[in-house]
Queue: 2 jobs
Job 1
Amino acid sequence: MEPSKEEVKARTDRFAQALRDSGTRLTHQRVVIFQEVAKTGEHPDADTVFRRVRKRMPSISLDTVYRTLWMLNDMGLISTLGPQRGRVRFDGNASPHHHFVCTDCGFVGDFYYEEFDGLEVPAEVDRMGDVATTHVQFRGLCSRCWPRDGKGRMSQGNEGRKPHE
Amino acid sequence: MEPSKEEVKARTDRFAQALRDSGTRLTHQRVVIFQEVAKTGEHPDADTVFRRVRKRMPSISLDTVYRTLWMLNDMGLISTLGPQRGRVRFDGNASPHHHFVCTDCGFVGDFYYEEFDGLEVPAEVDRMGDVATTHVQFRGLCSRCWPRDGKGRMSQGNEGRKPHE
DNA sequence: AGTATTGTTAGGTATTATTCTTATATAGGA
DNA sequence: TCCTATATAAGAATAATACCTAACAATACT
């Protein structure tokens, strides 16, 4: 579902303010890129954003789109779907369980919690489709990354440092 | 946390049975690949699995690892972290909200549900790190993919068909 | 206003993750 | 043991994302 006009306006204002506050330049390309993500409920990928932005700004480069999207993500103005970027990660536990995800190093811990088994499915979700499974995901800094910074965006593929257990 | 010896055994048996039941050949490489994923609580990526399997089976190819992991995923014997597959997708909604994810076409719908705001953080999770946000993710088939099959694994980058709203 | 300074971009190239192609090997049944 | 449909290895191909550099643009300094 698309966000309302007012909502988009609110998001845009928040964005502009955040850039100003952090002393980051409010360039035309950044505004356009942000708007394309903020005005849709579609969760587009980088290439989709690129193609849409290009209609309004034919000279935009794909790299600028990537750079800007990650910057916005780091600033907390947008987010990404799923725990991280880059490679797919596999989970050998086939029974229902949930995850704690460290937003800094990418560590993922499994847990099972009975209370979450029967989580109610809101009517709104029922209308979207047929729910088969429920996952709860807690995000934050894991005990190893805490109290260290956590600048946002997980370090490149988590180099050198294997996700600690 | 690593699964117990018994748990690994149980997973392996389930795996062998599932392959036999579906008439899929139980090759040495499949066994080794499955074990590497089943015996760790680490959620490794394909390349990590590849490197580990190679120690026991130096001639294994990366492609076999990928092929096998996706096959296991399709059979429900393992799963992937996040909405998965390929490109990162961005979410322009910065306020707390949750998702419904279609496991067939990749559609992602946002929703907000007050009840989920105060979800209790189990003690086990508290020990993993400092929780900042909570996301509930319902997975299943969306109304457009339902009642059609849903063979599992989302279709290749969702070609042609844009995630419907 | 004119110029130095520093942040930002386009475009091209590099890198990394994942998949495809094809010749060869092998599991599992006859 | 032999046969044949599946699987596999290896390498090439493709897709997604990041890096590099020269050109630009915005602010700061004079």
Job 2
Amino acid sequence: MEKLGRKRSEKSRDAVLQATRELVTESGFTHVTIEKIAARAHVGKPTIYRWWQSKNAILAECVLGGEVLPAVDETSASEIHTSASEWFRAVLGYVDENAALLRGLVAAAYEDPEIAAQLRAHLGDPIEAALIEWAGGAGRETPLAGELSPHALAQLLFGAILYRLAPTLGATDASDVEMFDVLIARLHTQ
Amino acid sequence: MEKLGRKRSEKSRDAVLQATRELVTESGFTHVTIEKIAARAHVGKPTIYRWWQSKNAILAECVLGGEVLPAVDETSASEIHTSASEWFRAVLGYVDENAALLRGLVAAAYEDPEIAAQLRAHLGDPIEAALIEWAGGAGRETPLAGELSPHALAQLLFGAILYRLAPTLGATDASDVEMFDVLIARLHTQ
Amino acid sequence: MEKLGRKRSEKSRDAVLQATRELVTESGFTHVTIEKIAARAHVGKPTIYRWWQSKNAILAECVLGGEVLPAVDETSASEIHTSASEWFRAVLGYVDENAALLRGLVAAAYEDPEIAAQLRAHLGDPIEAALIEWAGGAGRETPLAGELSPHALAQLLFGAILYRLAPTLGATDASDVEMFDVLIARLHTQ
Amino acid sequence: MEKLGRKRSEKSRDAVLQATRELVTESGFTHVTIEKIAARAHVGKPTIYRWWQSKNAILAECVLGGEVLPAVDETSASEIHTSASEWFRAVLGYVDENAALLRGLVAAAYEDPEIAAQLRAHLGDPIEAALIEWAGGAGRETPLAGELSPHALAQLLFGAILYRLAPTLGATDASDVEMFDVLIARLHTQ
DNA sequence: ATCTAAGCGAGACGGTACGTCAAGTCTTGTT
DNA sequence: AACAAGACTTGACGTACCGTCTCGCTTAGAT
């Protein structure tokens, strides 16, 4: 038995995501409503509810929809610090570009574990994986005596991103990158 | 010209704060409404709007109302690490005790700069002040070569608290304390 | 361009009007609130505000919604008095049957010209038209010397209805009909 | 035991009545609130509630407070029509001067029997008494065959006043006076 | 000449209803 | 069967007034 009826309209999907991006950027996630999204996207509300569970889910798909973070290149040990530093700069670049959207998503994550899980999957886990890779693979996951494990360092970096995203709290200057450079240096020192 | 009219009812004030604490703990900040607070506190809605600007403001007063963080004791240099470690443990204890309320407050901070400023004033600034104190006073505020400044370290610790508060993201285990111990060791090492 | 979307629910419309009729009869128009109407009719407040401008407008539609007054039969000149007397008795019957609703509507008319206009259109104008018909048509509209014009008589009868509706003021006995009989006799005398 | 404490402040009383008169004239009785009266009169709300039962009661005292209608002069029979006509003109003059206040009072009367009773006592009863006087005293109260009794005529005139007060409904022209002249002529004819 | 009880302006209180906004569901007709 | 449009019930919003209740402060007869 094959499926009957019309296929899902990609045009509507894209219009919804685009409208959401615009509205969040313009007025902040709090002031975005499903009704405004539907109106801006020329889409019926039932269409939205058919495909997304909540306003949070639309936002998550906006931010984390495609490929989010760059892959880690395999590099020689001598270039690790340079490569890692560049990689984290790219991460921060992505964060800054999507600051308004991510801010809303982070706010949502504090009340909705589902969103928190998606944030972890698309942001936290890749960071930790990259650090483990640089630290020398899974075998080195256990914390070094008196030093930070890749896991702990990932937490720290994720926290730094959360801090940077908070309005007023975090400046958007380069201090985070320098912090990271100092910390990453600890990873391999001995 | 003296103050005329009836005085503000402290009973109502306390009832509102207590009701908010209960409701946030029971169902999460998102599901708390002004109407439910008013009903639970046996208080009229206008009374709430007379004294608080928003639901966020009530929450902020709940969490940050009294004395929040312990003061830093003056200690001898030899005891710095012990003392700092204990102090940060106390901070985390406060955070864990008020986790549900703080989670809501952090979520609000991501959309409301006013709340963000209060969070910084009551949590971030005391942490930074303590670190500066331990680092040897204002004269040592500038970052040490290859090390973390007290300011950067405060950002890192605040970020760690944000991470710990996020549902699913942060575990409530002792790892943050250990992270802190490692980092604080860097402050004075040279 | 055709009409899109869902049609207006006649069920809701009828429920609102019925609930209003009941509530006005039970407790008087002053104590009727939109919220009570909505609750009794099991209808949302926005639905009410979508279709009616005010509480007054709902009441007006309740009272003046359908066919209000009986038409005037064409009758031979000899039967005019009998016929007119019967017709006015029917008018008073309608007034008495809807006394509670009309009382509220009249009260509203004194503060809201819109309601006053509707009252005139559905009650005053038909009365005047009937009197003109009995007086011999439009050609006889001008006042007879020393007598009452149909227009003046209509004002008098409308005033008598207002008086009868006022609580305490007007008795609900038959005196109005007799007054009318005396007055109508003046219309055609000579 | 005599009364202790301060006497009622006549200044406050007058200020309340004056403020009410102004507010009703400016915006209509519906939009007048106790709070606005208190503010305009520089008077506390409890002072108002201490002396008046309701907003209606304040209005009633505004309109019907002093001497309302002129007394009927004793006149010779030959001058009755002239005298009665002048008297009713004076009544209509009073009505027109206080139209805005009376309109509110009439609206209130339709929902509040207390107000209706006051209206009858200060307006309806004097009219009926005057008509009885002109008709030749109490002995002539019974209706004349085929004519209107003074009681019926009083109802008619009161109704005409109600009609004249209603917005849109009644014009403020002289037609009511002429109507009255025609009717009063019926009183004594035979 | 005090004392003291009531009246006073001001304004906060617990409530009720307002009119609006948005949520998520249901209906209608079109593609 | 999925779509755009839009009416539906529900429930919370923030505001306006209600009528009551403190607040200190007059004010004036009783002591």
